[in-house]
From TrEMBL:
<protein>
    <submittedName>
        <fullName>Uncharacterized protein</fullName>
    </submittedName>
</protein>
<dbReference type="InterPro" id="IPR009061">
    <property type="entry name" value="DNA-bd_dom_put_sf"/>
</dbReference>
<dbReference type="Pfam" id="PF13411">
    <property type="entry name" value="MerR_1"/>
</dbReference>
<dbReference type="InterPro" id="IPR000551">
    <property type="entry name" value="MerR-type_HTH_dom"/>
</dbReference>
<dbReference type="InterPro" id="IPR047057">
    <property type="entry name" value="MerR_fam"/>
</dbReference>
<dbReference type="GO" id="GO:0003677">
    <property type="term" value="F:DNA binding"/>
</dbReference>
<dbReference type="GO" id="GO:0003700">
    <property type="term" value="F:DNA-binding transcription factor activity"/>
</dbReference>
DNA sequence: TTTCTAACA
DNA sequence: TGTTAGCA
């Protein structure tokens, strides 16, 4: 009796990789190939099973959802998302971004 | 970006 | 059988 769920072991949050690429893509609202690119770029950190199956955790889904806003609403490329997430990972949320336009397609 | 093939569960 | 992963 500590937190909400009554689990013997300490399960804090969704860190269990149980979502395959198609499920993660649906939850994030992104196409499957995008998740594959994000993984190649090192934007997301999906666990890999013995058969090379990418398993995404709720933690990855949350990051994917942010990527979807940047790519869908803001029109940022994978390269831009990688840069933005890289800044958030390095800086405590203080991004001194001037005015740099990413290569945007119509 | 899209599609095809191969392997796995 | 359906789905995933990798490449051209």
């Amino acid at each position: 009796m500590s937190v909400t769920q009554s689990d013997p072991v300490d399960h804090d949050m969704a860190d269990e990789p149980v979502y395959v690429i198609s499920v993660a893509a649906k939850l994030a609202g992104l196409p499957s190939w995008t998740l594959r690119v994000l993984d190649k770029e090192g934007v997301v950190c999906p666990q890999r099973t013995e058969k090379d199956r990418r398993l995404y955790s709720d933690r990855d889904i949350a990051k994917l959802a942010r990527v979807r806003y940047l790519t869908e609403e803001r029109g940022v490329n994978i390269n831009g998302v990688k840069l933005i997430l890289e800044m958030e990972n390095n800086s405590t949320g203080r991004s001194e971004l001037g005015r740099f336009g990413e290569g945007e397609q119509s």
